[in-house]
Amino acid sequence: MICDATGVPLAVTLTGGNRNDITQLLPLLAAIPPIRGKRGRPRQRPREVYADRGYDHDCYRRQVWAKGIKPVIARRGTEHGSGLGTKRWVVEQTIALLHWFGRLRIRWEIRDDIHEAFLKLACSLICWRRLRTAFR
């Protein structure tokens, strides 16, 4: 899952439980829809990507830089307390919101397309709830 700074999920993918997370970094970046806002051509990608130590691979850092995105990724082998946790907790919060939906907390569906549909429905509901509270 990749989300914005407020915890709204922008793109999600579903993989097997034994897959490495880093394999989904570039497909998730490619799946982000255009960001609307100011007049002119909408941004197609974020300015920065925050990630934890699990995404610390130099080849992927170079590929993210090549897309024009600054990777802010904690280095493996360094001390904790880099300050990135103050930014990354937003993703953990969004994952916790997904766990409010019982069918996503523990996967009971055998077919992955059904589970992915419930995952995308839950992300849509999270977005709708954020919009509803923003316009009150």
TrEMBL record:
BP-aspect Gene Ontology terms: DNA transposition
Signal sequence, start to end: none
Record GO terms (molecular function): DNA binding; transposase activity
Domain spans labelled Transposase IS4-like: 2-126
InterPro entries registered for this protein in UniProt: Transposase_11 (IPR002559)
Protein's recorded name: Transposase DDE domain protein
Organism listed in the record: Streptomyces chartreusis NRRL 3882
